[in-house]
Amino acid sequence: MSELLITHIGTLTGLHPTGTTVLRGLSMASLPQMENAWLLCRDGVISAYGSMEDLPGGHAAFPVLSAKGGFVFPCWCDSHTHLVFAASREEEFVMKIQGKSYEDIAAAGGGILNSAAKLQDTSEEALYESASARLQDMIRQGTGAVEIKSGYGLTPDSELKMLRVIRRIKETFPIPVKATLLAAHAYPLAFRNNHEGYIRQIIDEILPAVAGEGLADYIDAFCEQGFFSVGETDRILSAGAKHGLRPKIHVNQLSISGGVQAGVKHKALSVDHLELTDLEAINSLSNSSTIATLLPSCSLYLDIPYANARGLMQADVPVAIATDYNPGSTPSGNMNLVVSLACIKLKMLPEEAINAATLNGAAAMGLSEELGSIGVGKRANLLITRPMPSLAYLPYSFGQSQVSTVIINGKVF
Ligand SMILES: N=CN[C@@H](CCC(=O)O)C(=O)O
Ligand SMILES: [Zn+2]
């Protein structure tokens, strides 16, 4: 039996009532806390917690870690990343500084196709090594569950290669990992003038092979002008459903398309980006169980609009936030920065941003029964901060990490 008793917790945060698996709209402002607390981890889960004034007798028998007055949060749940990639793209960073837009760079053969060309020639081993290093960094920054997409393969072999790397990450890392098939990320050069051919390849070859090996949990498409139309996205999501894959899709990043409504029609677990948040999209989400996943560090890096988080929350939509870690639009996997940006740029309250990054992030990966809040029986993936004067200090101190210790499955990571 493995045990760890965390004592002297200044504030234990995220004590949502048992059975709370997602927070909608304005209820996201509620983040129940307990001052001056202890918490016991046993065999990887939270087995008890309480006030330091009532620390049970016999506690000296457990290995003890003092939180030294810091806050304890459930780990960040990062529900949207592309962290398997072959090479960085800082040359595009410089092009952006010189005035080129994301679309200009993509049209010039950069962007996703650039990453796909590099990934073709990179071995599974090398991809695993570089993605592992990124994920190690993310966990040290407080991330305790992650979703990872394919989408830099764009051929049957390379999409499968990426998903096998993600499977190996699932098998070797101690945190929950979800895999998403994003073959519909861009039209590969070979199909530049034959979109129908690539859609058929996704539906007839890639999807059955991926499903046959059980390599994906979800299906995604980049529903965007110049990428996949709403009609094409609709076909891909229908085909995914035949293989039991629920959608999590990229929509309304660069243009308004009606893709959110298509996602809702297909009962998407989440629709992600929404930098352009139109009223029709908000209305369709407010009557659905689909989560709106917002990616403010993508807006920061590309210098594009920020999603209308307040409008979504006022319409009772559940909002999650995630990094979108990828080499082109968001070369950062730091959820602490995302939480700060959610406050600074999405105008979310600290409580709303933290719920969006924990319980609702877990929900956007189908993991909120085991992660995203503090409760007996939940997985003991926790982060401990330095002593902070208040909860708001965490997002306020942007660009600096307050995370002092990360606990994964009840053990110090
Ligand atoms: N928008 C589409 N996909 C990624 C960017 C991919 C890339 O530029 O490599 C995103 O979520 O931002
Ligand atoms: Zn993305």
From TrEMBL:
Q: Which InterPro entries match?
A: Amidohydro-rel (IPR006680), HutI (IPR005920), Metal-dep_hydrolase_composite (IPR011059), Metal_Hydrolase (IPR032466)
Q: What class of enzyme is it?
A: hydrolase
Q: Which terms under GO biological process does the entry name? A: L-histidine catabolic process to glutamate and formamide; L-histidine catabolic process to glutamate and formate
What does the entry list as the binding residues for N-formimidoyl-L-glutamate? Answer: Y152, N326, G328
A cellular component term from Gene Ontology for this protein is: cytoplasm
Superkingdom of the organism of origin: Bacteria
Q: Which Pfam families match?
A: Amidohydro_1
Q: Which residues bind Fe(3+)?
A: H80, H82, H250, D324
User: Per the entry, which co-factors are needed?
Assistant: Zn(2+); Fe(3+)
Q: Which reaction does it catalyse?
A: 4-imidazolone-5-propanoate + H2O = N-formimidoyl-L-glutamate
What metabolic or biological pathway is this protein involved in? Answer: Amino-acid degradation; L-histidine degradation into L-glutamate; N-formimidoyl-L-glutamate from L-histidine: step 3/3
Signal peptide, first to last residue: none
> Which Gene Ontology MF annotations are present?
imidazolonepropionase activity; iron ion binding; zinc ion binding
Does this UniProt record's set of keywords contain Hydrolase?
yes
Domain Amidohydrolase-related as annotated: residue spans: 71-412
Residues the entry annotates as binding 4-imidazolone-5-propanoate: R89, Y152, H185, Q253, S329
EC no.?
3.5.2.7
Q: State the SUPFAM superfamilies in the record.
A: Composite domain of metallo-dependent hydrolases, Metallo-dependent hydrolases
Instruction: List localization entries.
Output: Cytoplasm
Instruction: Name the family the entry cites.
Output: Belongs to the metallo-dependent hydrolases superfamily. HutI family.
| Name under which the protein is recorded | Imidazolonepropionase
- UniProt source species: Pedobacter psychroterrae
